[in-house]
Design goal:
The complex is a heterodimer.
Chain A lengths: L1 E12 L2 E12 L3 E5 L6 H8 L7 E6 L2 E2 L4 H7 E4 L11 H11 L4 H14 L15 H13 L5 E5 L7 H18 L2 E6 L2 H4 L4 E6 L2 E6 L1 H7 L3 E6 L3 H12 L4 E3 L2 E6 L2 H11 L6 E5 L3 H9 L3 H4 L3 H12 L3
Chain B lengths: L1 H18 L2 H27 L7 H21 L1 H9 L1 H6 L5 H30 L8 H25 L3 H17 L12 H9 L1 H14 L5 H7 L4 H25 L2
Classes of the chains: A alpha/beta, B mainly alpha.
């Protein structure tokens, strides 16, 4: 059953096309990820699906409700954890939760039962009566997840859920998310620009410049990268490239001064390189394909390159934030 | 039903936040009291020479209440700008609730806070030499409520249009002085130049001060003097404040809806 259906969705801001005619479906119970660099259109998409923005063109259905004409029903069906914090620092954890529950029509009795359940799920029950001003970033994010769940939504939307958190907190947060999927069979729609985070998803859509470039399971996507990846550094790059191409007839890609080739059975190929190459190699690395390589394959550039244009991204975000 | 529940939930949050900010409570009480003591004590002998037939402190007292109501009501609506700046507004706007209910909740929250402060001033009245008879307390409170609601509505409209607290503060500064000084709080408008009367006629404080003054001084000074100082019948004052509130709150709801 498709719990999210998106058809030809487009969103333009002042001449900038943030989302460019995308279509996809999300099955009930899966963790679906949008992977792409900053400014790719991930947050805009999630904002449209959660009825914060109106689409310029196209339609979307959440839990069989139309995002344009049945907005309140859509809102009741989703739990949102925004990219930017949206808690009230002057209230306690429990008060933040109660505020949300009341606005979403959770009855007093239901609320009494559920608040313990969701707060325990994220390990915040003990601290429910503390004012959250002094909570850490990770704790606040966990509270936002609890808050997103209190009205028992069909789908949980996570917009860059671990942005700005340290690796340990990130790992902890993911254990909660996976617990949710296991125990509540919750559908989770998330956006991220962290490759390793996307590995947790059942299916990923790679998005760049507002378009979906690829959509598949992480393993299938990685399989599209032809094999193991061998990266090499050398003082004499040109000669090395030439020799690799002539001797082994492989495609040699270059990025940041590092040469890359993709071969099957890289562990058996390496010794051949050591024995047969005449050009001197300074450094060499062998690894199984990651989503980094997938991204590079599909878009022609690394995801990290985009972060160099942070200023442009910031400007874009500022422009879009004015709308709320 | 959900509409009332929404109003209550939004209202309750404003009250909780206000109650936790003890410094704010103290500081907003300080200004009107200071006004009253300093101006009242300083000017009363000077103006008594002019033989208006009314003690200046008594004359100014409704204006002081109005000033307190205005500044607290205005300031309370800054919470909406904060919400926008710190992200909480998104949580409110994305909830499946009526924007009108949200606007009413916020307006009523600011109104309640302004009313509490005004009531404190009322309790202190005897200590400043203003006599309060039991019978006038209810009509007085009603007008405090009406004025507070009108100003809160205006404050909400402004805060729903402002993006930062700085711009909100700026607009407030520009508005507060003319609103207060051209309202009859300080000097009777009955003898003021006509351009001032034009502004005063759209100023909610004018109507609030006028009504409260008539209520407060009703049994204390001669009717002829009172009518020299008063502008409209009390009923008209009430009607204007109600109408003004309705316009402001509706405009605020419209401004909220523009956002998403």
């Amino acid at each position: 059953m498709n719990i999210i259906e998106v058809k030809n969705l487009t969103k333009k801001f002042n001449g900038l096309t943030a989302v460019d005619n995308i279509s996809f479906e999300v099955k009930k119970g899966e963790i679906f990820g949008f992977l792409g660099p900053n400014g790719a259109g991930k947050s805009t998409t999630i904002n449209i699906l959660s009825t914060i923005f109106l689409p310029t063109k196209g339609e979307a259905f959440i839990n069989n409700f139309n995002v344009l004409s049945q907005r309140d029903e859509v809102r009741k069906s989703i739990g949102l954890v925004f990219q930017d914090p949206s808690l009230d620092d002057r209230l306690t954890a429990e008060e933040n939760l109660r505020f949300h529950a009341r606005l979403y029509g959770v009855s007093s009795d239901e609320y009494k039962k559920r608040k313990k359940e969701v707060l325990q799920l994220v390990d915040l029950w003990e601290r429910r009566n503390e004012i959250i001003k002094n909570f850490s970033g990770g704790m606040k994010r966990r509270l936002e997840i609890a808050r997103g769940l209190i009205h028992y939504p069909a789908i949980l939307f996570l917009d860059e859920p671990t942005l700005g958190l340290d690796p340990q907190t990130r790992a902890h947060l993911w254990s909660y998310i996976l617990k949710l999927k296991r125990e509540k069979e919750m559908t989770i729609f998330m956006t991220t620009h962290y490759m390793n985070e996307a590995e947790n998803c059942d299916r990923i859509a790679i998005i760049d410049h507002g378009k979906i470039i690829a959509l598949n399971t992480p393993d299938n996507l990685k399989a599209k990268v032809r094999g193991d990846v061998i990266s090499m550094k050398s003082n004499d790059k040109l000669s090395l490239k030439k020799e690799l191409e002539e001797r082994y007839r492989v495609e040699v890609k270059e990025e940041d001064g590092i040469l890359r080739i993709e071969v099957a059975n890289g562990d058996q190929f390496l010794p051949r390189l050591f024995n047969e190459l005449t050009v001197k190699i300074d450094a060499i690395e062998l690894r199984k394909p990651t989503l980094d390589d997938v991204f590079l394959n599909f878009t022609g550039h690394a995801i990290r390159e985009e972060e160099a244009s942070d200023k442009e991204h910031m400007r874009q975000r500022m422009r879009m934030r004015r709308r709320i | 039903m959900q509409f009332i529940q929404t109003i209550y939930t939004i209202w309750q949050r404003e009250i909780i936040r206000y109650w936790r900010d003890k410094t704010r409570i103290a500081s907003t009480l300080f200004q009107p009291l200071m006004f009253l003591f300093i101006f009242g004590a300083g000017l009363s002998k000077t103006l008594a020479a002019g033989n208006f037939g009314v003690d200046f402190v008594q004359f100014m007292y409704p204006g002081i209440i109005a000033m307190s109501v205005m500044s607290v009501a205005f300031f309370s609506t800054i919470s909406t700008v904060w919400d926008r700046e710190f992200g909480f507004l998104k949580e409110i706007l994305v909830a499946p609730v009526s924007r009108a209910a949200v606007a009413l909740g916020k307006t009523l929250g600011a109104t309640t806070i302004a009313l509490i402060q005004a009531l404190i001033l009322l309790v202190l009245a005897p200590f400043i030499g203003v006599a309060i008879h039991f019978v006038i307390i209810l009509p007085l409170v009603i007008f405090m409520l009406l004025l507070a609601f009108a100003i809160s509505g205006m404050g909400l409209l402004i805060s729903s249009l402002m993006k930062t607290t700085e711009s909100f503060g700026f607009v407030m500064q520009i508005l507060i002085f003319p609103l207060f000084f051209i309202s009859g709080a300080f000097f009777p408008l009955t003898a003021a130049p006509s351009w001032m009367r034009v502004f005063a006629n759209v100023n909610p404080l004018t109507y609030g001060v006028d009504a409260m003054r008539q209520i407060l001084l009703g049994n204390q000074i001669a009717p002829t003097i009172l009518s020299n100082l008063s502008l409209h019948p009390i009923a008209i004052n009430a009607l204007f404040l109600l109408g003004f509130s309705a316009v402001m709150v509706s405009a605020a709801v419209w401004a909220f809806n523009k956002r998403a």
